[in-house]
From TrEMBL:
Keyword Transcription appears in the UniProt entry: no
GO biological process terms, semicolon-separated: ribosome biogenesis
Ligand binding (GTP): 165-172, 190-194, 212-215, 282-285, 314-316
EC number: 3.6.5.-
Protein name as it appears in the record: GTPase Obg
Alphabetized GO MF terms: GTP binding; GTPase activity; magnesium ion binding
HAMAP family: GTPase_Obg (MF_01454)
Binding locations of Mg(2+): 172, 192
Domain Obg intervals: 1-158
Keyword set includes Magnesium: yes
Domain OCT intervals: 350-427
A Pfam family matched in the record: MMR_HSR1
Length: 427
């Protein structure tokens, strides 16, 4: 099964905690603090790999976590940093934040890397908190918490030229004739259930990637017939080759088919209207010989009047493909690569908002102070120790928490709860 959209959960590594320790060496009667620092947690890194062409690897594994940093230890020994986790994805993968829809990264080149989540900083050991008046600090800082995020990965095929059209009009046959690709070919609808890619090296031209975009149908833009799964692979193509069944042997009307497909492209994304497009009238070998010239002339005139370059061919007989390839290699260098666009809503570049260090709420007469910084502070101090308790109060004052409580109307004797630790407030 071709997998081109998945949801996953990623988590960075927690920072290691700083240690509380003191020198206990022979002949050193009053050893100072010697708690080492915690190691940094591992990052979550995505890396593109051109050898991959599907998100199949994410079907059964949806959770990825980096390694936590080691805690510090005695003798000023720092903990080891946690290992990063590197998640490989195909070139063409777009990474979105599941919660906000924000674009995190578009992996458009091989070996591209992006750090999606940073590991937590390691906490500092008590060796860093010794002062002239506080020579034996009995507290250290814990490591920063791990970060966690739900992501959506979408694979949008990177191809220079895309073959579009209804099922069974000959796209796969054209691809097999002009590239080294070997797609399944059969005379029934939806033979192709995933984009097939082939490399074209035509005469002395530069190589380009040709994709057979799976068959589109009416209603594809609203998701019918796996429409969205197919349409997302049209977004990156520089040139569209619209293949039509000129023979009408299956009762198809190439003029009507053309309008239906282009309408679906426009409904999916208005910008696809601007994409250069040429017409290939295929299966001409199946047209009745008595009417062949007249039918081809009528269709050619019809589409040329709409401003399109038109070719007739019989891909099965390898007839007419040289003219098409000659034109593609001539025009392709003149077409600029189109930046990726997004179809459901305007996406913003990844710029995560910094989490406020704390928040204060009043409920039933108690003032609750919560947040990441508060959790780190509570975990870092020993409130039964005088020096540690003094440090705790000084941090609350320096961070403006006491001032904010006073603005909210706190009075002497009121209860303050900081991440579960309660005390009575006195100015």
């Amino acid at each position: 099964m071709f997998v081109d959209k998945v949801s996953i959960n990623v988590k960075s590594g927690k920072g290691g905690d700083g240690a509380v320790a003191f020198r206990r060496e022979k002949y050193v009667p009053n050893g100072g603090p010697s708690g080492g620092d915690g190691g940094k947690g591992g990052n979550v890194i995505f890396k593109s790999n051109s050898a991959l062409n599907t998100l199949e690897a994410f079907r059964y594994k949806r959770k990825f976590a980096a390694e936590a940093g080691e805690n510090g230890s005695r003798s000023n020994m720092s903990g080891k940093d946690g290992k990063d986790i590197i998640i490989e994805v195909p070139v063409g993968t777009v990474i979105f934040d599941s919660a906000t829809g924000a674009l995190i990264c578009d992996m458009v080149v091989d070996n591209q890397e992006i750090t999606v989540l940073n590991g937590g900083r390691g906490g500092r050991g008590n060796q860093h908190f010794a002062t002239s008046t506080r020579q034996s600090p009995k507290f250290a800082k814990p490591g920063d918490e791990a970060e966690e995020k739900n992501l959506i990965l979408e694979l949008k095929t990177i191809a220079d030229v895309g073959l579009i059209g209804f099922p069974n009009v000959g796209k796969s046959t054209i691809l097999s004739m002009v590239t080294n690709a070997t797609p399944k070919i059969a005379n029934y609808h939806f033979t192709t259930l995933s984009p097939n890619l082939g490399i074209v090296k035509y005469k002395n031209s530069e190589e380009f990637v040709l994709a057979d975009i799976p068959g589109l149908i009416e209603g594809a833009s609203s998701g019918q017939g796996l429409g969205h799964q197919f349409l997302r692979h049209v977004e990156r193509t520089r040139l569209l080759v619209h293949v039509l069944d000129a023979s009408g042997v299956e009762g198809r009307d190439p003029k009507k088919d053309f309008d239906i497909i282009n309408n679906e492209l426009s409904l999916y994304a208005e910008k696809l209207k601007e994409r250069p497009q040429i017409i290939v009238l295929n299966k001409t070998d199946l047209i009745d010989i008595d009417n062949k010239e007249e039918i081809i002339k009528d269709l050619t005139t019809y589409f040329e009047q709409k401003g399109y370059k038109v070719f007739d061919s019989s891909a099965a007989m390898n007839d007419g493909l040289d003219k098409i390839m000659n034109y593609i290699v001539e025009i392709l260098p003149t077409i600029e690569r189109t930046p990726l666009f997004f179809t459901t809503e305007e996406k913003v570049l990844y710029a995560p908002k910094a989490e406020k260090e704390y928040k204060i709420e009043k409920e039933n007469g108690t003032y609750y102070v919560e947040g990441k910084m508060m959790r780190r502070l509570i975990n870092s101090v020993n409130l039964e120790d005088y020096e540690s308790s003094t440090y705790f109060q000084r941090v609350l004052k320096n961070k403006g928490i006491f001032a904010e409580l006073e603005k909210m109307g706190i009075s002497d004797g009121d209860t303050v709860n900081i991440e579960g630790f309660e005390f009575e407030y006195y100015k």
